[in-house]
Amino acid sequence: MIQQENANWNRLLEWAEAAEAQVSPMFRSLDKIAERNQWKVIQAFQRHRVSDFHFNGSTGYGYNDRGREILDFVYADIMGAEAALVRPHFVSGTHTISCALFGLLRPGDELLYITGRPYDTLHKVIGKPGDGTGSLQDFGIKYVEVPLAADGAIDWGGVASKVNERTKVIGIQRSRGYEWRSSYTVAEIGEMVKRVKVMKPDVSVFVDNCYGEFTEELEPTQVGVDLMAGSLIKNPGGGLAPTGGYVAGTKHAVELTSYRLTAPGIGGEVGATLGTLRAMYQGLFLAPHLVGQALKGSVFAAAMFEMLGYETNPRWDAKRTDLIQAVKFSDSKQLIAFVQGIQRAAAVDSHVVPEPWDMPGYEHPVIMAAGTFMQGGSLELSADAPIREPYIAYMQGGLTYSHVKYGVLNALSLLAERELIVIKPYTT
Ligand SMILES: *Cc1c(COP(=O)(O)O)cnc(C)c1O
Fold it and tell me: Which residue from 16, 91, 261, 395 could staple onto 383, CB 3.0 to 4.6 Å apart?
């Protein structure tokens, strides 16, 4: 597994040198965002007088768990929201989003997603009428989506034609997920909120914020979003939270979500945090920096692959609003070599060779590189690729920039070993 010095590796190092010189202005602006977010997080800890005893956790019902309560306040403060609910009891991002949607919607209501098809794992949460699973549609909640326009923009004509008196929640997915489209910046989400609230003032706007936290200086709840959700094994967990999710938004929306997570009347007042609080606090403290490292890694990856002739999304110099870097390959062999190369660079499980498999919740075989400390943790360097045309790999995360760089170099080196690419000497 250990990368041998060879002609390809040495050539790749020269290309990497050139790529880093090219992207250095981007690195400076990403450092600045990380710095501002770091200060924002520290100031929230200070305002809520976070102390060592808040890390102790609770057992049983978990009544009066001060550390849990303060963590909710700290999150709400950072997100510029009235309230937040941060819990290890959310098993994943999908579960968190599911609780939020079931919290906001009632039978007869409509959920209107305006950013096209949502992330794969949400398809079964939405479900079909009468599917017998207890999905949203099985409960008589109607689901409508407006596909994105060909250029990836919101189809506002389509949205206007779909909003009606039953429309209760507007759904927005900030990140590209497994799609070759742009992610939506916080400013763009703010514009969406304005436009849909003109169409229907009492509608609630929900944002799937997975992969978005701390990539910009503002969060969606600071531009009028009513409720957003994310996973703690992604950005805000800072690589340390062992599990969990969060929602942030209006007091009412957060409370409704809490009744779905536990039970009506109980909400966020119970729930033993066991030994998870210290990691959730420390991870949140580290998150702005780690998100910055991951973003620099993505920018480097984009620059390298572009120099070597691949199509990327976003491009290296594009403004970032999530962690995901997509790279388009010409066939499944290249796609698989890329993902296996990322795995080969991991500190954990580098000896494992990932293969495509039918993952629960996904509709195509997926190959995943995940040599991570937290199982499935994707603020850690990881790569996913559904095996379908066009052959696009999605990489994200990296707790250190050097690791991402090592991953990219290993991926390219494996492509070269398998004679799927020729690495020429670098020339200016
Ligand atoms: C990861 C992700 C989810 C689902 O989160 P899981 O933790 O994998 O269940 C939902 N939406 C988006 C955009 C995501 O990136």
Answer: 395
For the CA of 97, the nearest atom of ligand 1: 10
- Supply 224's token pair: 């009028």
- In this structure, are 74 and 222 located in the same domain? yes
With respect to residue 15, please indicate whether it lies within any of the assigned structural domains.
yes
Choice from 117, 121, 372 to test ligand 1 binding pocket (greatest atom count within 8 A of CB): 121
CA nearest 381: which of 289, 297, 288, 284? 297
Question: What separation in Å is there between the alpha carbon of 301 and the centre of ligand 1?
Answer: 22
Indicate whether 86 belongs to any domain.
yes
Q: What is the pLDDT of residues 254-312, one digit of tens each?
A: 999 999 999 999 999 999 999 999 999 999 999 999 999 999 999 999 999 999 999 99
Ligand 1 nearest atom to the CA of residue 122, by list position? 10
Residue with tokens 């805000």: 236
Q: Which two tokens stand for residue 375?
A: 């199982």
User: Alpha-carbon dihedral of residues 88, 92, 98, 103, nearest 10 degrees?
Assistant: 10
CB of 411 closer than 8 Å to CB of 418: no
Q: Note down the domain range covering 213.
A: 58-273
Q: Residues lining ligand 1, CB < 6 A?
A: 92-94, 119, 121, 173, 175, 177, 208, 210-211, 231
Same domain, 347 and 248: no
Say what the pTM is.
Answer: 0.96
Q: Which CATH number is 391's domain given?
A: 3.90.1150.60
